[in-house]
Structures are given as C-alpha cells and as structure tokens.
C-alpha cells in the first residue's frame, strides 16, 4: 500500500471517529472565529468615517489573489464545520432512539445545549448577509464598493438591523460554548488553565457581540449617518 | 411519608414498555431508595402483581450494578451518590418520582429498570488493560510512581462502570467511562507501552457500540457517583489524536 | 471416607517447591485441548480464569451479575497483606505464616498457610504490573499500613477501595483473554448444578437469568470461586446476590463441606435501623483506634447521649480489658457488644447498638486531625444514618462479614470430587477459625494467579478423561432436576414473599448460631429451621414465569439452599464442643469469659458429607498437626 494510500486511509478512519469529527469542528471553528474577529476589526473602521471604511474595502479588492484565497478557506471551513456538525447530530439521535419522559440538566450550559440552533441561525444569517451587504441583491440602494453607505442605508431599515443584532447574539452564544469546547475537543484541558479558558470564552464572545451590534445600533441612534 | 412513583415497566427486551403509577405508603426516611422499592415490591407481590425489576448487588455504592433515572437525573438528586446509597430523607412527603431505565442504543432495556451494559465490557476488552501475564512481573518497587501520578491514576480508576454518564449525556456518549480507563492507565509508567494503541482501540470500540459522540456538555461529570472529571475526556481525545497521526503503522491494524 | 490433604513431602519451606517439581506438566501444545469451567469472577475466579487462559487452556467463566467486574470482592476496603518487609520492620514469610495460623486460632492446615505467605509477595508484583494504583510514598515506592492489630506494616492499599482496584486488575486481565478468544465470559448466568461422571466433575448446569434457558456445559475440570455464604444470616456485609448455591449443589453431589460454623463477625458495622433493612455496611476497624465504646449504665435509657453524664456511662471494653481496651480482637469486641445489648443497655431505636464516641479524641487531637484520619468514614456514616459523628457519637453493632468455612479442599485446592477445584472464600481456606484483616484478598489472588494454574495442570496431566457430550444421562438428569425445582417454586403460589422467609431464617441463625452459641440453643435452631423450611416449600409466593428475568425466582432458589446450609452450620457448631476463633460456645469459656479451645479433642477440620435429603450428614475429620507454630491460649486482660 502506497504511503499516499495509507495517508488517505488514515484520514478517512480519523474522520470516521467522533473525536476526528470533533477535531475538524474545532479547527474549522477556530478559522471561522479568526475570520469573525478580523471582520469585526474591519467593520469597526466605520467609526473612522466613510473614507477609511470604503478605502479598506478597496484595498481588500486590490489584492484579489489573497481575497479569494481567504474566501476559499472560509468556504471550505464552513462546509466542513457544518457537515461535521450535522453528522455528529445524526450520531447523537441514533445513540438514543427512545428519549426520557423526564430529563433534567444538572450543570450543562444553555449555550452548549443549543449549538445546533445557534449554528444554523448563523448560517442563514450569513447567506442573507452576503446577499445584503456583499452582493447587494436584496439591498434597495446598494452601491458596489461603498460599504459605509451600504451599511448606514441598510441598517436604517429597523427589521434588518434587529435581525443582525439577533444573529450576532446567536454567534455570541455559539462561541460562549464553542471557544471553550474546542480546546477540550483537541485534548487541551488542565485544572490550572481550563478555568482561565472558560473566562476567555465568555469575555471574547461578549466583546465580539458588543463590537458587532454597536454598528447597527449606532446607525439606528444616528451616531453614524 | 407517602410518595407517588411513576415507573417504567417492560416485561422483556422485545415487549413495549410504559410508565405505571404506584403509591409508596408510610416510607421511613432512614430507608435507602432501594429499600423503599423493596417495600413497594413486597406490597406488589402480596397483591399478586409482579415486582419491579431493578439491578443491584453491593448496596454500598461500589459495585456499579444499581442505577436508574429519578426525575430525569441519573442516580437521583444527591451528587456523587448511587441510588443504593441515596436515602429517603432527601425526599419530601407527597413527592412524585419518575423512575426510568438508562436510555441509550448501546444499553438495551432487559426488563423494567434493568439494562444491558455489556458494551462497557467490550470497550475494556479492546485494550483497556496492561498486557502482563501472571509470573512475568518484576518487583513492585522496581516501578517507581510519583505520588501525584498514582493519586491521579486512582482518581480515574475509581470508575464503577455504572453507566450514569451515558444515561445523562444528551448524546449518550461513553466518553467519561472510556476516558477514565484510558487516563488511569496513561498516568502510570506500566501503561506507556500500549498507551497509543489502547486509546485508538477503545475509542473505536465505543464507536462500534453506537455510543454517541461527546460534544463537551458536561452532564456526565455532574452525575458521576465517583466524581470522574471531564479532564479524562480531554486526555482521551489527546491520546487518540496523537496516536492516529504519530503511529508509524496503523495502530488499529496491528492486533 | 479417608480425607487425604495430599501435603507434599519435606520441610514446610520446601513443600511448595517440591510440589511444583514433582507435579506432572501438560504439554504446551495440548493445553488448548482442555476445556475448563470457572464459576465466579471475583478475585479468585477472575484471576484463575485469566491465568489459565494465558497458559493456553480454553476457559468458560460464569457470574450472576451483569458484568464480571461486579463480584463482591469489589467491596473490600482495608487492604491486602504481603510479606514484602518493605518497611524494614521485621516482617518475613515466616511471620506472616505465624500470625495467620495463630490468628486462625490453630484450626488451619500449616503447609497451606505457609504457601500463602510465600506467594503473597508475588501477588503485589503482579498487581502493580497490571496498573493497580496502590498508595505510594513521595519517593514513588509502595506505601504500607498496619492493619487489624498486626505489629508490622505489611498491608498494601488503594485508598479505601483496595478490593475494587485489585478486582479491576483481575477483570482487565480477564477481558484481555476474552479479547484473545481464550475465555468465553458468560455473565447473568447462575450455576445450579454440578455434573459428575464416573466420579469426576465434568460439567455444570446453568440458568440464563435473562431468558431462563437451562443449559449444560462440558469441561475437563470445574473450578468454583463463588464467594462466601454470609447471606445465610440475611443481614450481612455481603452483596444482595452473594449466595451458597454453587457450593451447596456441589456438596449435594458429594463434595465435603468443611467447618460450616466458622463465621466471622465484624464489630464495627452501622446498626440496623428498621426491619426494612436489606444489608449492613462495614465501617473500617481503624475507628477503634480513637473512638471510645460505651453504653448507658441504666437499662432502657432513652436519653440522648449528651444528656447522659460521664458517671452514668459504662466504657465496658476499657473496664473489662484494661490493657487492650477498645482494641480487643474482632470476636471479643463483638461478643461484648452483644452482651450489653442483651442486658437491655443497647442504644438507638432498635436497642441493638453501642456508642463509638470520638468527643474525647476530638478534644485531644482537634477536629482537623480526626477529619484527616476518618473523614471519608464519617461521611459514609452520615450519608447512611443522617447523623453527624462529629457531634453525636456513632452507633455501631457487629455484623456477619466473612465465612471461614466452605468446601473442603486438599493442598491442590481440589475437593473430594476429582476435577472439582474450589478457590477463594468458597473453600474452607487457610484462615482456620478466624480470618485476619487483609488476608482474604491475598488468599483469593494466591489461589487464582499462582496455585490453581499449577495444580489443575497436574490433575489434567495425570488423569484419563473420556470424550463426553451433553447428551449423557447425567446431564439430562441434572437439567431435569433444575427444571423441576424451578417449576415447583413457581407453582406453590403461597402467601409469603421469599425475602420474608429469608429475613426470618436470618434471625434464627443470628440468634442461635451467631456471635455466641449454646447446645440447647443450637438444637432449638435446628428444629425452628426445619419447620420454617417446611413452611417455605408450602407457602412461598414466587410470581411470574421461568422464561424471563425473574429476580424473586433467583432469590427463592438461593434461600432454599440457605435453609439447608443453616441446618448444617448448627450441626457443626453443636458438634464442636469448644470455643475457637469465630465459634464461641458459651459452655466453653475461661473464668474471664474468654474462648476456651480444646486442642486435645477438636484439633481437626470437620468435613461433612451429604447423606441424602433429610438424612443427617456424615462427619469426617482431618486431623491438624502443628509442627511450626505451637498452640497457645489467647488472653487480652
Ligand atoms: C465489605 C467487605 C469488606 C472486606 N474487606 C476486606 C479487606 O479489607 N481485606 C481482605 O483481605 N478481605 C476483605 N473482605 C473479604 C474479601 O473481600 C472476600 O473474602 C473476597 O473478596 C472473596 O472473593 P471471591 O473471589 O472468593 O468471591 P467474590 O468476590 O464474592 O466472587 C464471587 C463470584 O462468584 C459468582 N457466583 C456466585 N454464585 C454463583 C452462581 N451460583 N453461579 C454463577 N456465579 C456465581 C459471583 O457472580 C461472583 O463473580 C471484605 C469483604 C466484605 C464483604
Ligand atoms: C462564523 C460562524 C461560526 C463560528 C465562528 C463557529 C465556531 C465554532 C466553534 C469554535 C465550535 C467549537 C468546536 C468544538 O467544540 O470542537 C463550534 C461548534 C459547533 N458549531 Fe460552530 N461555528 C460557526 C458556525 C456554525 C454553523 C453555521 C453551524 C451550523 C450548522 C455550526 C454548528 C456547530 C455545532 C453543532 C457545534 C457543536 C459541536 C461540538 O461542540 O462538537 N457552527 N462552532
Ligand atoms: C453588524 C454586523 C456586521 C456588519 C456591519 C457586517 C458588514 C459587512 C460588510 C459591509 C460586508 C461587505 C464587505 C465588502 O463587500 O467589501 C461584509 C461581508 C461579509 N460578512 Fe459581514 N458584517 C457583520 C457581521 C457578520 C457576521 C456575524 C458574519 C459571520 C458569521 C459575517 C460574515 C461576512 C462574510 C462571510 C462576508 C463576505 C466577505 C467576502 O466578501 O468574502 N458578517 N460584512
Ligand atoms: S464514569 Fe462515573 S458515571 Fe460513568 S460509569 Fe464510571 S462511575 Fe459511572
Ligand atoms: S455529557 Fe456527554 S457530551 Fe461529553 S462531556 Fe459528558 S459525554
Ligand atoms: S448496588 Fe452496588 S453500587 Fe449500588
């Protein structure tokens, strides 16, 4: 058997096992997390005024190779992340065909029990979001390469702003569990550091949420116009 | 005190089960939960009804035979306590209690509250040991084990194989049980030679037994009567991930 | 019948080596042609099954629990002895041997005990290598504690769960052989008869506890490691399922039953709290190091302990045994507790309990120290009783804990039926009339890992075994017998539950054949047992059917055997006109009320032969000689 085949074979067997899937979720999760953080920083430039913001968009477009590379990675990550999550969920349902009449959670966090809600909602949001602010398909007055205007105009429609806020809160919830969970998944748990990790997960997700929702709120309150 | 019990009754694996309601009259608070069921059963027999079947043996919280859900919590409301060690003084007069068997594809119901946990034995049979035949051991003190490692090994070795972790896990995952054994043996010098192979084989077996996957929910830890820590699951994941990538030959293939 | 212990020639230090040299060996290539049945997966059964499989034999192993890991060995707390002398405190194989023979009150077979002491050291090595997490010193070496009044620290332990860890070690070794295809593990299956063909044990008949299926299994040798029979008393520190059925049915097939009346009572158990009580829980003896035992001087004193002034308390052990005080041996402490309760000075609702008071110790050493020493025990006590031992004195009472008696075996652990071997607590073992703490785990593992695997080979190599199949009339007959008994039990449909009978039987045996025994009492007991047994067979109510899991049916069969065993225990106790170890006959005591042995007439093993239903069994005697440890009288004044 050729080394390549062994490698393939090994990868296959690795992914077959739940732990393998979990590791994939974790890694793709990190990538997505990385993107979201970067994306937030990018978006916060809205407070630096129209020029900076639009210029930022331009520079991004200025280097298509990189841009598309990033997009490719993101796309792959999302696909893997979602596939794995769906497969894990199927496993879960198969593992307990008959449920309990009564079942209490003793210590499980609400976030951890709702990953399969927060996740898909995020997915839906992203699609909507792309149509809205990237391609502008569903954006009444969309102007290519003018994110500042697009955002301001976009969020003046209250329902849309609210949807953004809700979605971002979902993301926060998702990461509240996810950011800690991913370390456990790849085997990083130490009585000394784990409590710190949990804190990090909480603060990171809260900051992320605040950062993102500040934008629609700023627009609604007219702080940015 | 008097209680109302809603108990899962199922004559055998094939039959369809249902919840049946019983009254437990003048129960003494000093009874253990199983003694309360003994009393209920005596009553049933005298009425000509078949007693409720439930697994138990040592009634000291160490053999791991007993266990069922009480109001949706594995082994009932008292932390770090098996049902056989749970006493009625922790309940109030007039309480309504729902008793259900462990629920998992890998734990088929045998009768009433009794389930088949042989899947656990098969997980242990797939590498949950150190290969040393009688007679080939060296002097005990030739293997030095730092106290803190011996203590941590013991923490995980305490698992009584009751299955509460699986029952409580929303994914019906056996991660805590499997992790406990992998961690116990990984903590000791004697456990090193087979460490990687062990992790891969035991995880694979848990998989074939159709236990769910761990998504780090943590309910298992909360109900474990022996206080096994989530840390062991991380340890299992770590050993497994290391093994699958670092082994030169397929760890599973060899053996 | 002539009882030959088949002890090898030569001085005691050489006996085991000589045996191993003289014994016949099975050719390695032939081992896989032999099928061995092991009933029991406790320390003895699991270690034996695993080791014989390692040697190449085909093994079938049975247990009644859902997993071999649940055998009651799991409950052992204190530790396991070994003559390692790691502590450099003067321990040696000879000292362990000496202590065990003396502790057994000179009713054990010297060469067996010596072998046990020799092998003790290998057991620790084996268990360490398996990954048993024994307690360690900071330097990484094995830790020891002194246990049960021994003057040397020779006890190895794993927190308060030594039995659990040793059993899991043996269980893992067993599962390794299951994986290797050498052991077929058959759980949730109960042995209900032994099949003997032209004088040799050749198989067993079992009932599948889930499907009720009755099956025959063939073997070239049958090994019983089915544990003790303490549950004959109903309330004991044994597991609910512990039973005598396997050894009892073997007894009825011709195996001799030795010293049935030698039962051990443990002084520090949590007392009975009501008649619903289903079992008793042991509390480590170490508690007596710091606790003071007392009862009120007045009878039926219903005041709370706090209300009883110092002057009205009777610290009876300190009063009667000034030098040993609260640390007198198990049997002495137990008997005295019973005595004061019989006088009506017992405490607690039932009046069956004495105080174990730590208030002085807490004042002297501080709560912290006490917590360090006994924290987990105090917790366990509070969990069960709901009382806080830091504030209220503990209530304790003796309980049945271990049975020294069992099937008679020779030096090779073979019963009087060729091919039937008996190991662990199930045999009459090496403990004589009284077992020392931390010695049973040692014996079970010695039998399983290091003795039986040799001796069984010798039997197989030197015996001609014909081909047989389960079609033989002997198997048919045994199956029929089992089916018949099941049918009968299910058809009586009387109006008393199995446990109500078991409870009543237990009361009788405890009353008359428990801590102290008298000739008239025992005679009475034999009658009471007979009539209760009579009622059982006419009035027991076992519902359900035999085709699915039926726990009352399982218990009914076990209780039926306990009835017969109880009677034999009383006969044995009646026959032994002396007091020794756990067997105390009130007629035979020193003026100070200590056990009075009669070496001239009773220095023998009493081995009983079944003579048929309702026939008085026949007594055979194996004389005991003591060439190395010379019998002496115990005194704790
Ligand atoms: C609470 C407690 C604490 C103890 N503490 C200590 C201690 O600290 N140190 C010490 O040295 N000793 C201690 N002992 C004694 C010691 O634990 C036991 O004597 C010893 O473990 C017995 O082991 P075994 O293998 O002979 O029997 P067990 O471990 O009882 O195993 C019996 C096996 O036989 C099987 N079986 C029984 N009947 C049947 C049947 N009819 N058909 C099929 N299978 C059957 C059972 O399923 C089980 O697998 C303690 C005992 C108790 C009860
Ligand atoms: C920007 C978007 C997303 C980010 C940053 C993200 C991040 C993460 C992270 C870090 C984890 C923890 C992984 C682990 O525990 O090993 C996780 C888990 C999970 N994600 Fe996402 N995720 C995103 C989108 C999604 C989407 C779209 C879905 C929906 C299908 C989803 C479903 C899940 C599920 C079900 C889990 C839990 C599985 C587990 O813990 O094993 N996620 N996510
Ligand atoms: C209030 C919150 C948000 C605002 C204001 C916002 C704004 C924007 C804008 C203006 C663009 C277009 C950039 C351009 O075309 O130059 C964009 C693209 C994008 N956003 Fe957001 N975003 C928000 C939240 C999110 C979240 C939570 C996610 C993911 C979970 C996300 C994922 C994306 C993606 C994937 C793109 C496309 C990037 C690309 O072109 O490759 N956004 N966002
Ligand atoms: S890990 Fe805890 S809950 Fe799970 S089997 Fe072991 S003891 Fe029971
Ligand atoms: S509850 Fe289940 S998801 Fe993992 S952490 Fe425990 S096994
Ligand atoms: S019966 Fe043994 S743990 Fe509960």
Biggest sheet statistics of chain A: none
The global form of chain B is: elongated
Count of DSSP-assigned helices of chain B: 8
Greatest chain-chain contact: B-C, 78 and 78 residues
Distance between the termini of chain A: 64 Å
Strand content of chain A: under 5%
Describe this structure in words.
The complex is a heterotrimer of chains A (225), B (255) and C (637). Chain A is mainly alpha-helical. In chain A, 78% of the residues lie in helices and 0% in strands. Chain A has helices at residues 3-16, 18-44, 50-62, 64-95, 110-113, 115-134, 147-156, 158-185, 194-220. In chain A, helix 7 packs across helix 9 (194-220). Chain B has eight helices and seven strands; from the N terminus they run E-E-H-E-E-E-E-E-H-H-H-H-H-H-H. In chain B, strands 2-1-5-3-4 form a five-stranded mixed β-sheet. In chain B, strands 6-7 form a two-stranded antiparallel ribbon. In chain B, a hairpin with an 8-residue loop joins strand 1 (3-9) and strand 2. The model of chain B has no long low-confidence stretch (mean pLDDT 95). Chain C is α+β, with helices and mostly antiparallel strands and 637 residues long. In chain C, 38% of the residues lie in helices and 14% in strands. Chain C has helices at residues 12-22, 28-31, 43-55, 93-103, 110-130, 162-179, 245-252, 316-320, 330-342, 359-385, 440-461, 473-492, 498-513, 519-539, 551-575, 599-602, and strands at 35-39, 58-62, 80-81, 155-156, 183-186, 189-197, 200-208, 214-218, 221-224, 257-258, 263-269, 292-296, 313-314, 354-357, 394-403, 406-407, 420-422, 604-609, 618-623. Chain C is globular and about 75 Å long. In chain C, 58% of the residues are buried. The model of chain C has no long low-confidence stretch (mean pLDDT 95). Chains B and C meet through helix 1, helix 2 and helix 3 of B and helix 3, helix 5, helix 6, helix 10 and helix 11 of C. The structure holds flavin-adenine dinucleotide, protoporphyrin IX containing FE (HEM) (2 copies), iron/sulfur cluster (SF4), FE3-S4 cluster (F3S) and FE2/S2 (inorganic) cluster.
